[in-house]
Design goal:
With 216 residues, this protein is an alpha/beta fold. 30% of the residues lie in helices and 21% in strands.
Length: 216
């Protein structure tokens, strides 16, 4: 079933989706020991509206099945952005897409009515504020337990995946042939941020590789 738009979502809205794959994958594994259903996330983000682009930002690793995972994401509609894992002297490792995600959002804002950020990272608070100032509606999809309060305060809408785990996480018994998780889509519980005294600008017109078995 197609996710039904909420009253503040309209079918003619142009939507851009920006997914921090590592943030979502490891949150799902650490909190619930389960794999994230990226297909369900994309459907929830688009919500029956006009998808302009959907980006999935991932870090390259040495896992053998990683290419299959990326191919699976592409099949469900994502454009993949890849970055090498940086290894520093002494063994320290670093890999994040914060700057890259911000650059893509800024580049696409003129083409969008809605920016959907799939991450709980509070560092994106200023990015959402900028998108809002440019007339875009801002929406966040993330796990409540790992979502910064800064995002909750700034976003126009928050969808907490924790509140519908059957929809957003794969169970251990689900098969790859069940692209939608094998469960009916229920309306996600969303939190709409209360408007502050400041008025929004008017809206423009109209390892992660281990999850490949469920995205194929």
């Amino acid at each position: 079933m197609t996710t039904i738009p909420t009253p503040n979502q309209h079918r003619d809205q142009r939507v851009g989706v920006f997914v921090d794959v590592s943030n979502m994958y490891y949150s799902g594994r650490q909190l619930y020991r389960r794999k994230v259903n990226f297909t369900a996330i994309l459907k929830e983000a688009v919500a029956g509206r006009h998808l302009v682009r959907a980006f999935a930002y991932a870090i390259k690793t040495d896992v053998a099945d990683e290419p299959k995972f990326h191919e699976a994401l592409e099949r469900v509609g994502f454009d993949i952005r890849l970055k090498d894992l940086q290894v520093f002297f002494g063994g320290a490792k670093k890999g994040d897409w914060d700057v890259g995600i911000a650059i893509d959002v800024v580049r696409f804002i003129p083409k969008l009515d809605v920016v959907v950020l799939v991450s709980g990272d509070g560092d994106f608070k200023d990015l959402l504020e900028y998108a809002s100032s440019m007339g875009c509606r801002t929406e966040v999809i993330s796990f409540e337990k790992t979502t910064s309060s800064r995002l909750v305060e700034e976003a126009d809408q928050i969808t907490f995946m924790d509140r519908d785990l059957k929809k957003f996480l794969w169970s251990s018994t689900q098969r790859p042939q069940e692209p939608d998780g094998g469960a009916p889509h229920q309306p996600a519980r969303r939190h709409l941020r209360k408007r502050s005294s400041r008025e929004r600008a008017p809206q423009k017109s109209s390892s992660p590789a281990a999850a490949v078995e469920h995205q194929s």
